Amino acid sequence: MKLTFSKYQGAGNDFIMVDNRDKNYFLNQAQIEQLCGRRFGIGADGLILLENGQGVDFQMIYYNADGHVGSMCGNGGRCVVAFARQLGVITDDCDFVAYDGLHSAKCIEGDLVSLKMTDVRSVEKLSDAWRLDTGSPHLVIFKENIKEINVKESGAAIRNSEDFVEEGINVNFVEHKGGELFLRTYERGVEDETLACGTGATATAIAAFEAGVINSETVKVNVLGGQLEVSLSKQENLYSDIYLIGGAKFVFRGEVDV
Q1: Catalytic site residue 197?
Q2: Is the pTM of this model over 0.85?
Q3: pLDDT, tens digit, 9 for 90 and up, residues 108-125
Q4: Can 36 be counted among the known catalytic residues?
Q5: Which CATH architecture has domain 2-107+247-257?
């Protein structure tokens, strides 16, 4: 089977995009894992199928690099919007369905895409971290000098600890600098550090606001692959009107034997 695909990246978070509106492709876990492999495949943090959705512009089905169905991916969501625009499925505004429900998004100037994230009602304070779900489960840990951290080793130890091994969790190490946040993330499903994580940037901004680290409802989150922006609104215990904004760039398209 020949698979036609496009490659996109958002702040270095890279994805294989497949137009599956005609249901031509049925990929199993092993095939997806191989395609995402960086030595024997295309190489990506995940694979996204763009499919038809009832009452919306399209449906996003996201697979982690290990080939298993993933939860919400914020940068993947922004990239699939750019992909849908390139296909002519949408123009600038759209509504689509993902793992965690309905999302709206807008292509703004250049390659910037603004994605509305789901509301967050629960932010749990642990002894040395914050735990919350922004479409995917996240642990946010505030540290100094996070450039010195071995994120793969430290993140894997937490993700595979007794508290989190069953369902898995994404682990975010965050430093506050000059009103902005610097973030490094260990992602479950990739089982490694990635250059960016959209739901992680969202979780980090909310945790920073909750902890009083920042007091602005718009925050810049610097990641290894670039910069993201998160805006939010808090009413009592509810975080709403959460938007993840950043570049979503086409890299290349191709065809591969599966």
Answers
A1: yes
A2: yes
A3: 989 999 999 999 999 999
A4: no
A5: Roll (3.10)
